[in-house]
Amino acid sequence: MANEFPTQARVVIVGGGIIGCSVAYHLTKLGWTDVVLLEQGQLSGGTTWHAAGLVGQLRSHSNMTSLIKYSTQLYGELEAETGLATGWKNCGSLSVARTADRMT
């Protein structure tokens, strides 16, 4: 069964980067079982891998700050949930305002 490629699916996601993996993960968490993720190589091995680094917490819009907060909490939980090493290291950072406008 593992070697058989599905001939149809409710959702087909092209690309196994951070966005494609996230969409597949969240759809299955919602109970969707007919989801296929297509990736030509290793998951998160393309652009996502090259962009790995710091995940700043504060953004100019509260919705984006909330999304980043959710994401960093999820990164910390994925290893325990899946049993796969994510490499996530939760560390702090400091942002310095260089102008008076950036102080608020």
Task: Please indicate the percent range of residues in DSSP E strands (runs of 2 or more).
Answer: 5-15%
Runs with pLDDT <50, length 5+?
none
Can you give the helix content as a percent range? 25-40%
Order of helices and strands: EHEHH
Shape: elongated
First-residue to last-residue Cα separation: 56 Å
Main beta-sheet annotation: 2 strands, parallel
The count of helical stretches stands at: 3
Cα-atom radius of gyration: 17 Å
Question: What's the total count of β strands?
Answer: 2
Average pLDDT over all residues: 84
Tell me the strand order in the biggest sheet: 1-2
- Secondary-structure-derived class: mainly alpha
What does this structure look like?
The protein contains three helices and two strands. With 104 residues, it is mostly helical. The protein has a domain at 8-45. A two-stranded parallel ribbon has the order 1-2. Helix 1 links the parallel strand 1 and strand 2 (35-38). The longest helix has 21 residues, at 62-82. It is elongated. The model has no long low-confidence stretch (mean pLDDT 84).
Write the SSE topology.
Elements: E1 11-14, H1 18-29, E2 35-38, H2 47-50, H3 62-82
Parallel strand pairs: 1-2
